[in-house]
């Protein structure tokens, strides 16, 4: 088994930068379509995805790929798998809000070994390899020191659903305000939410419905920065999980007591 993932990180960073250029060139003139209700896709998503796949295939032709806008039918536990979100924050991008990212993870048999998330607006490149720490533009990053939920800035996200997921999210937000936390944010890129917990800008983040490409790279970056990642019930987070609760690790149970999926009924 190979434990040196420098080549994977280098290729992912190169692919993410190229995709970032493709996306930035299309800012403000995106052709938008709705692939499902409230779930947008633009020509930038598709072009960025082609750029990333071409770059990865050029170096690793035999590897499997899962990419949001393409059906490769690869399994999450494939021996060598790339998991790609070519544009995380499409809704922001489509509305000219400058907050979005590119997320690329490399996984071996269901375990993420390398992850890269690039914010082309701020030119911030987040990266991690298993057991080797997390970095932003080459500098090591760490989670915040916030000791309790009371002193936390918490990020969240809303799925496209207007049913139970929305109602539970609203309920949990009400409970966070009752806990008198410092603040709540919804910025619109799950991958960056994870990176921002990893570098201490946010103290915690949760979202009840995500796809693998939204969090695969970010969960490794956050774990390598000293954070704690679970699913929305406090169980082990893996590539088959569909919801997420992450924190700086200092008040995770307290956090789950407020935002856990099952403690937030929608009555
Ligand atoms: C979305 C973003 C958003 C999150 C949604 C995701 P997309 O990804 O990460 O922050 O709230 O659940 O689907 O569609 O922009 O790649
Ligand atoms: Ca996404
Ligand atoms: Ca996307």
If helices are DSSP runs of H or I spanning 4 or more residues, what is the number of helices?
A: 7
Predict the CATH topology of the largest domain: Fructose-1,6-Bisphosphatase, Chain A, domain 1
Strand adjacency order, main sheet: 3-4-5-6-7-8-9
SSE order, one letter for each helix or strand? HEEHEEHEEEEEEHEHEHEEH
Work out the number of β strands: 14
List low-confidence stretches.
none
Characterise this structure:
- It is globular and about 50 Å long.
- The chain has 267 residues and is an alpha+beta fold.
- It has 2 domains: 6-140, Fructose-1,6-Bisphosphatase, subunit A, domain 1 (Fructose-1,6-Bisphosphatase, Chain A, domain 1), CATH 3.30.540; 149-263, D-Maltodextrin-Binding Protein, domain 2, CATH 3.40.190.80.
- The protein starts with 5 loop residues before the first helix and ends in an 8-residue tail after the last helix.
- It has 7 helices and 14 strands.
- The longest helix has 20 residues, at 6-25.
- It has helices at 6-25, 43-59, 90-94, 164-178, 190-198, 212-224, 252-259, and strands at 32-36, 39-42, 64-67, 81-88, 101-108, 111-119, 124-129, 134-136, 139-140, 153-156, 183-185, 204-207, 228-230, 244-247.
- Helix 4 links the parallel strand 10 and strand 11.
- The strands form 3 sheets. It has a 7-stranded mixed sheet with strand order 3-4-5-6-7-8-9, sandwiched between helices. A 5-stranded mixed sheet has the order 11-10-12-14-13, with helices on both faces. A two-stranded antiparallel sheet has the order 1-2.
- The model has no long low-confidence stretch (mean pLDDT 94).
- The site of D-MYO-inositol-1-phosphate (IPD) has 14 residues, from strand 4 and helix 3.
